[in-house]
Amino acid sequence: MAELDRTFTEELFTEVLESTPCIIVYSQQAFECSKNYLKSTTQTAKEIFESILGVHQCKIIYKGKNKKDFRKYQFIIEELKLSIYVTPRQNLTEFSLNYISDEEFVVPTDSSEYKSMNLKFMAEEYINHNLMDFLDRNDLMTSYREIKDFCTSLLSLKEPVREINREQSRKMWKAYIDGERALNTDKKELFIVEEVGSIEKEHYNDRTYNTLTLKVKAPTLQERLTSAIKSVQGKDSVLPTSFFFLGLYESLALFTFDFIVDELISFCK
Fold first, then answer.
1. How far is 116 from 19, CA to CA, in rounded Å?
2. What is the pTM of this model?
3. CA–CA gap between residue 257 and residue 260 (Å, rounded)
4. DSSP helix/strand/coil, 146
């Protein structure tokens, strides 16, 4: 009896996910911008973008408006550990690529603050791009309404509370840092505002001004003088032993000199 050869064939199963087409219009400038947000890869931004094309499960988060007052969205692709940031184009049927990022992302805990769905990413460079021609070439004319409804549905997304709080904190700290930098540049002091009054109208030289009264915690001129003397105490510095005060501003008359001692500081107080 002839021997029976057994052949085992592994069947390949491909899971086909229902997905919504998502058209991304890109520019070389977007790839250049992406360099600032891609930290853990040796691939170019364009290579990474090409790897994104196709079907992926995404989480979509509204990120507020950009400087041009356009809505900005973050499409998180968890399986690739990537995010793409886009803004909708005026036709509300496709998106413009802002940049790609591999920075750590955080998905909101509140499911109402993001949209989760399967997207089929398709792309074309903005040069000579025409939406209808693109739809026709990719057999998407019958999907036009579905694509537009998807883009329009994102308008209902609200910016996550965490993002709002973070943006407010960022602006507050930026204002503080900018203010402190300006003070350091001008060698001025930073005072604490203890109380803010109400806006009132003041009349001066036949003109009306809106004024705001602030109560600040600031050292007196006497305290400043004492602090200045202490700053040089113990440095073998000398000050006049004879001095007097003129009006509201402390002045020192230079007659004779001696080393700074605690008695001098006590006298200033």
1. 11
2. 0.57
3. 9
4. helix
Distance from the Cα of residue 172 to its chain's centroid: 12
What tokens does 120 get? 């089929």
Q: Write out the two tokens for 169.
A: 């904190």
Cβ(123)–Cβ(53) below 8 Å: yes
Q: Which residues have CB under 8 Å from 193's CB, separation 6+?
A: 214, 215, 216, 217
pLDDT band at 234 (very low <50, low <70, confident <90, very high): low
Residue 75 and residue 61: Cα distance in Å, rounded?
A: 7
**Tokens for 243?**
């001095």
Using CA atoms, how far apart are residues 228 and 159, in angstroms rounded to an integer?
Answer: 51
Distance CA 124, CA 188 (A): 54
Amino acid at 170: R
Measured from the Cβ of residue 65, the count of other Cβ atoms closer than 10 Å reads: 12
